[in-house]
Amino acid sequence: KTVSHSGRVWNFVGDTLGWFYASTVDQETVDDWLPQYHLASEARHPSSRCLVATSFGPECRILCVALDSPVQGIYVSRIESRIVHDVWATDLLGSRLVLGANKQAVVIEDIAVSTSLHRLPTHSDVFALAQHENLVYTGLRNGGIIRFDTRVQRYQSHPLFDCMSRRSSSITALKHLHDHKLVVSYIDGGATFDLRFPVRTPLMEFTGNFNSYTTRLPLATDSHEKFLFAAGQDNRIRLWSLTKGGPALDPGGTGSTHQTAFQRPFEHRIAALQVVEEKEGPCLWAASGTELCKYSLGHRGIGIQGSCGG
Prior knowledge:
Blueprint: E1 2-5, E2 8-14, E3 19-26, E4 29-30, E5 34-38, E6 43-44, E7 50-55, E8 60-66, E9 74-79, E10 89-93, E11 96-101, E12 104-108, E13 118-121, E14 126-132, E15 135-140, E16 145-149, E17 156-160, H1 163-166, E18 171-176, E19 181-186, E20 189-194, E21 204-207, E22 219-221, E23 227-231, E24 237-241, E25 246-247, H2 256-263, E26 270-278, E27 281-288, E28 291-296, E29 305-309
Parallel strand pairs: 21-25
Antiparallel strand pairs: 1-2, 2-3, 3-4, 3-5, 6-7, 7-8, 8-9, 10-11, 11-12, 12-13, 14-15, 15-16, 16-17, 18-19, 19-20, 20-21, 22-23, 23-24, 26-27, 27-28, 28-29
């Protein structure tokens, strides 16, 4: 995860052994990756002014780092397994942290000041999360999507799109777009829905990705929300147009840089994707195994050059 705050750029990485690493970028140099804390199980990390890392698995630990004071402002909290266990997903909006767990989502309204919990029953495991303003979207193992309104007492729930009658495939990722759209990634495909209309038919579908059972495959969009990037079970990154949908795009060209970015499979599963606006333009970051790869996307949002480091 890359975060810009107070004129500094931070890079954060969590690994499958539970270690949380950090480095800072100072103009053209990047500090060495230093282990900051051990969370005991696989570490993932949404972020904002207060960076939050959570561990997945049977016992959830939450690491909070205040970026204004990254040395003194570190604390770790633990949620007992009898309350929350089998954490599959996390999402942070402002200071509100949501955990996707066994047949429920759990909301911590202000992670910076309190760890008091609100449970959102879903009756199916929560594999994916998205937030927008006061709304929480949960993507479920059974293929359903339930929206919760945090402004209403007891967090009123509302099933969306009648997804269970349309698909039996689990949902693996959700992404809220600025123009009232929700990108939904299933194990067997993807689609975009208009949140203003409770209809079953998607606005468009995305085809051509490869997945048969993996529930943790990341996706990302560029800052202008024109392109969708998604990882496949075959360890490849694919690209779609968010305005046209359909099959995956051919980024064009047969040069080695294009093959490296979108055609060459990674050796290990792709664990994270993020598009970051940097000085040279938008860049796609991809984490796979011990490699962290960076690809310059250019002005058209397609890969033109890239590099990886272990």
